[in-house]
Write a structure and sequence with these properties.
Single_hybrid_motif, nucleotide-binding, ligase, 667 residues, 15 helices, alpha+beta, 10-stranded mixed sheet
């Protein structure tokens, strides 16, 4: 029996496992790096062991330190989470050799799964459809092909090659990136990514739990998952589940995992891989099946048999989105910093199967959490479970749109637009959905009037905040005068650049006129600002204005706007959408100027590769170096042709946002 369990992971998955452990009476042990000292998963564990350092290699991936931590805390079992360690055969073997229970497949099975080509060979011998693999690029019969690392996970290193001329360089590039063997397989366009979640016990029982649709992806990684798939009928579901069972038995798999397939528009499917972990999207399966998959996973690890005779019936429809700290409009650039507020309305539960339809939030963060560069950008998973797919999509989109996500840039707007898109609602999705629909990258707060109202609300809330803290005459309206005179103004750096907000109050404290206008960045010395424009915006009645909530009456329609101020930044949320506004000081301090043609770091990260040297002549668009942040690699290209004049960084160096990476002398 598992008595005390260490989870060798962090964030959402650690909290998820702890939730079930509390329910079944298993004591819990967390591990944490320096930066995670006050993380939610640490506070929720019965015991916690510090791992000195911050990088994954020295903390959450340091196998000897993890096993030592488990022994020191008196744990008799280790759960690897759902990251790299969950698929590592050497870690599985080390846990067992240390006399502890390993919550996962046997090390021998993981060694087979660690090589994708070997896995595909065994599955093909069991008569499951598999795409052919080519380890020698010279034997590729046609194009396009997909290059994949033989031991990769999470989509890292995958590249599509469409002609023979670029194949050799693409293969070499992937080998350098993943530092290992690669292979090619035919690239099938416009396919769906379908997976069958399974549980298998040591007695030979294998139970599939329907299928999950995971086709909406970025960089080969899922961001929207649902069950059941809108493309799978009862007959196809039976075929997929049967193939999954055959693959699991052919590979000798025991534990919780998912058999992944590609499905084309004709209903043909091919085995992709068997992922030997409790998948991030397991929550949708829990909603539609009613089973706690973590509990079943622990039961199998203890040597128990699965309690159900076969696949459970599907109850309703569930959709999950991954809320990530990244900016989809800027090549999915990760966003690091303090999460000042993380609030999702109308959540019915977390980390457990829901007793009835509603919203479930599985989060790895809370207000005040710090997102760093070393870990996956996913902040939380939000799941909607409803009787029908349309109801689930509508419920999920509404909750996301009304969520308050302050402090870091997230993919929330893209997720909302995806859920509300007519093609998604119709079930017309595949792995190229985001490429075909660039309109989903537009921000929710896109109308000019909505942005103007948000700017006005921010200015009114700021004035109310200052009046509330005024040492004298704090009860008077902001800007009150015996004789009405000039307007009050504020300048914000908004999503489209600097804007000026101006308004006048009458002697009764009522809004007498207002405007919002764009400001030329060259005018940011504030000379000439504050002059009232000839044309003002339509009249608005200010129903109430507090430091955190402004209610406006716009042409007979009342609108509540929430304003959360942190320093000089206002996070403004309304039914129209959300916007972040930074107030520009009237007396800014001079900032040091970077040298002309300087390339600076767009985010904190670690320099992974440097491909040029000082004095080298480069072309416009040439790759100079790469930064690694939040488990993704981000390229830095030359903005124009020139000569590398300075290169102050080296591979392995850690840089902060705004730090100098290189200087080019332009031609």
């Amino acid at each position: 029996m598992i008595r005390r369990l260490l989870v060798a992971d962090r964030g959402e998955i650690a909290r998820r496992v702890f939730a079930t452990c509390r329910l079944v009476g298993i004591e819990t042990v967390a591990v944490y790096s320096d930066v995670d000292t006050d993380a939610p998963h640490v506070n929720e564990a019965d015991y916690a062991v510090h791992l000195e350092g911050n990088t994954p290699a020295t903390t959450y991936l340091e196998q000897h330190a993890l096993i030592a931590a488990a022994k020191r805390a008196g744990a008799n079992a280790v759960h690897p989470g759902n990251g790299v360690l969950a698929e590592d055969p050497e870690f599985a073997a080390a846990v067992v050799d240390a006399g502890m229970i390993w919550v996962g497949p046997p090390a021998a099975t993981l060694r087979t799964l660690h090589r994708k080509t070997e896995t595909k060979k065994l599955v093909a011998e069991a008569k499951v459809p598999v795409l052919p693999s080519f380890t020698d690029p010279a034997t590729v019969p046609g194009f396009p092909v997909l290059i994949k690392p033989d031991a990769g996970i999470g989509g890292a290193g995958m590249r599509v090659v469409r002609d023979a001329a670029t194949l050799a360089e693409a293969v070499a590039s992937t080998r350098r990136e993943v530092d290992g063997d690669v292979f090619c397989e035919p690239y099938v366009p416009n396919v769906r990514h379908i997976e069958v979640p399974i549980l298998a016990d040591a007695m030979g029982a294998v139970v599939p739990f329907g299928e999950r649709e995971c086709s909406v992806q970025r960089r080969y990684q899922k961001i929207v998952e649902e069950t059941p798939s809108p493309a799978v009928d009862a007959a196809l579901r039976e075929d997929l589940c049967r193939a999954a069972i055959v693959a699991v038995r052919a590979l000798g798999f025991v534990g919780a995992g998912a058999v992944e397939f590609l499905l084309d528009s004709d209903g043909d499917f091919w085995f992709l891989e068997l992922t030997p972990t409790l998948q991030t999207d397991h929550a949708v399966t829990e909603c539609t099946s009613g089973y706690d998959l973590v509990r079943l996973q622990l039961l199998v690890a203890e040597g128990g048999s699965l309690p159900m005779p076969g696949p459970p019936p599907i109850r309703g429809h569930a959709i999950e989105v991954r809320i990530c700290a990244e900016d989809p409009a800027y090549a999915w650039l990760p966003s690091a910093g303090t999460l000042h507020r993380f609030a999702v309305p109308d959540v019915a539960g977390s980390f457990r199967p829901l007793p009835q339809p509603g919203l479930r939030l599985d989060s790895g963060v809370a207000d005040g959490s710090v997102t760093g560069m070393h870990h996956d950008p996913m902040l939380a998973k939000l799941i909607a479970w409803a009787p029908s797919r349309q109801e689930a999509a509508r419920m999920l989109a509404s909750a996301l749109a009304r969520a308050q996500l302050h402090g870091v840039v997230t993919n929330r707007d893209l997720l909302v637009r995806t859920l509300r898109h007519h093609s998604f609602r119709a079930g017309d999705i595949d792995t190229g959905f985001l490429d075909r629909h660039p309109e989903v990258f537009a921000p929710l707060l896109s109308s000019v009037d909505a942005v103007r109202l948000s700017c006005l609300a921010s200015a009114l809330a700021g004035a109310a905040d200052r009046r509330a803290s005024a040492p004298v005459l704090g009860s008077l309206p902001s800007g009150w005068r015996n004789v009405p005179s000039g307007s009050q103004t504020a300048v914000y750096d908004g999503p489209t650049g600097p804007v000026e907000v101006g308004y006048r109050m009458n002697r009764h404290g009522e809004l007498a006129g207002w405007w919002v206008r764009s400001v030329d960045p060259e005018e940011l010395d504030l000379a000439g600002l504050g002059q009232e424009p000839v044309d003002e915006h339509p009249p608005i009645v200010v129903v109430s204005a507090r430091r955190d909530r402004v209610v406006l009456n716009v042409q007979g329609i009342r609108l509540a706007v929430l304003v959360h101020r942190v320093g000089d930044v206002s996070y403004v949320d309304s039914p129209e959408g959300s916007v972040t506004l930074r107030e520009i000081s009237r007396f800014p301090l001079p900032a040091p100027e970077a040298a002309e043609s300087s390339l600076i770091a767009p985010l904190p990260g670690a320099v992974r590769r440097v491909l040029v040297v000082p004095g080298q002549r480069v072309r416009a668009g040439e790759l100079l170096l790469t930064l690694e942040a939040m488990k993704l690699e981000h390229p830095v290209h030359a903005p124009s042709a020139g000569v590398v004049a300075s290169l102050p960084v080296h591979p392995g160096a850690e840089v902060d946002t705004g730090e100098l990476l290189a200087v080019l002398d332009p031609e």
